Amino acid sequence: MTSPSQPSPLVRTAAGADAAPIAALLGRAFDDDPVWCWLLPDEASRVRRLAGLFEVLLRRVHLRHGATEATGRDGGTEAAALWDPPGHWRVPVRLQAAQAVPLLRILGTRVPITLRTLGEIERHHPREPHWYLSVLGTDPPAQGNGLGGALLRSRLDRCDAEGLPAYLESSKERNVPYYERFGFRVTRELALPGRGCPPVWLMWRDSGQGG
């Protein structure tokens, strides 16, 4: 959390020039994520692969919505939230096709299991209009400085003003209480296909829940 003597981190809308640094910090942030550890078991290449994957998703999916936000201490890029507006959480077929070659290059033989796992998560995505928090991550050295909270409040305040709910999937059980402090509640613990794959927690937030 930010102390009373510290100003709130400045949150800004990310642009194309931010894709590489955001992807790099997210790669490091998700290096210990249970689901991604299961999907990408090679520790030596995981951060590199994740960074490559996030850069593809940023450039081809999220940045075009104008809703990805970044923040950091002293104006740096140390945390990011990848939001999709209502009605835009599903990746169009043409974009899925365009990602096929980059994903094969990044994920290699893990493409089938990764797509199957992500597809199962998508199958349970709510259909009613909402803002979707696809990814939230803070570079490990910068964690504990209120950056993730600043990013959440930035979008959730606007959700409340517009009367719109929000949705996310948490792949870390220990993050569930954190999101609950911002008004999210668990709607389901979703078991995923594949022997030993960890679950994810589907979380929904009605507008006006504070936090």
Short description, anyone?
The chain is an alpha+beta fold. Helices cover 41% and strands 17% of the residues. A 7-stranded mixed sheet has the order 1-2-3-4-5-7-6.
Write structural notes for this entry:
The protein is an alpha+beta fold. It has helices spanning 19-29, 34-39, 43-62, 93-107, 111-123, 147-162, 176-180; strands spanning 12-13, 69-71, 79-84, 131-138, 166-170, 185-190, 200-205. The protein has a 7-stranded mixed beta sheet with strand order 1-2-3-4-5-7-6. The chain is globular, with a radius of gyration of 16 Å. The relative contact order is 0.16. The model has no long low-confidence stretch (mean pLDDT 92). Residues 45-208 form the N-acetyltransferase domain. InterPro entries: Acyl_CoA_acyltransferase (IPR016181), GNAT_dom (IPR000182), Trichothecene_AcTrans (IPR052523).
In whole angstroms, the N-to-C terminal distance is 13 Å
Main pleated-sheet profile: 7 strands, mixed
Shape: globular
- Helical content stands at 40-55%
For the CA atoms, what is the radius of gyration?
16 Å
Secondary structure tally, helices: 7
Overall pLDDT score: 92
